[in-house]
Amino acid sequence: xxxxxxxxxxxxxxxxxxxxxxxxxxxxxxxxxxxxxxxxxxxxxxxxxxxxxxxxxxxxxxxxxxxxxxxxxxxxxxxxxxxxxxxxxxxxxxxxxxxxxxxxxxxxxxxxxxxxxxxxxxxxxxxxxxxxxxxxxxxxxxxxxxxxxxxxxxxxxxxxxxxxxxxxxxxxxxxxxxxxxxxxxxxxxxxxxxxxxxxxxxxxxxxxxxxxxxxxxxxxxxxxxxxxxxxxxxxxxxxxxxxxxxxxxxxxxxx
Length: 255
Known about the structure:
By secondary structure, the chain is α/β, with parallel strands linked by helices. It contains 6 helices and 7 strands. The chain has a 7-stranded parallel sheet, with helices on both faces. Strand 5 (139-143), helix 5 (156-176) and strand 6 form a beta-alpha-beta unit. The relative contact order is 0.14. Mean pLDDT is 89; it is low at 196-200.
């Protein structure tokens, strides 16, 4: 894997980076010359991903962390972002979800879904803000879902969490845009990853009609390649073989 010249001295943090979209984004950004920080709960998988991206560790740092826990996020930031260094970007990617009718959602599962998709983004963003390099037009990218935009049946917990995540990012833009912060919200529909959704377990290949993690990563890398005075606010993504939202002819909730 070759690496281009680094575009800046700042680091880019990617959450949920142990597999799927997060791992693909970290890999693509590193090859474009960014120094990347990888966080995820599964340290074994994260270690493997990190070694696959940069065998020597050049331009890369990683830490196991549950981003829904403020103490773990604070420790991971201290462990992976060198003292005096700054963040040029944050990719808020960590998330999970299972589809169930409202009547079948247990209280604990509801809280877990909101914590994994919304609270974790808030905790990470809050911790990252003081370390962002506001002089260099830093970029926050949120990986959302078309579930943030549509009231899909059986997705009450996940859609509520993603809608809240969308509002969190909208608010961050309003609060910090005047200081130079750029916020980009990316809304993929079906992606062929380990995301469970309507399945008890899932793995790449089960949704072969959807987007690939690498296709989402390519779009994220393109956003990072844009000039610092260019703001890409929202991007909707879908494979042409499936629907985006509820209104199109290919819609199916079996994902």
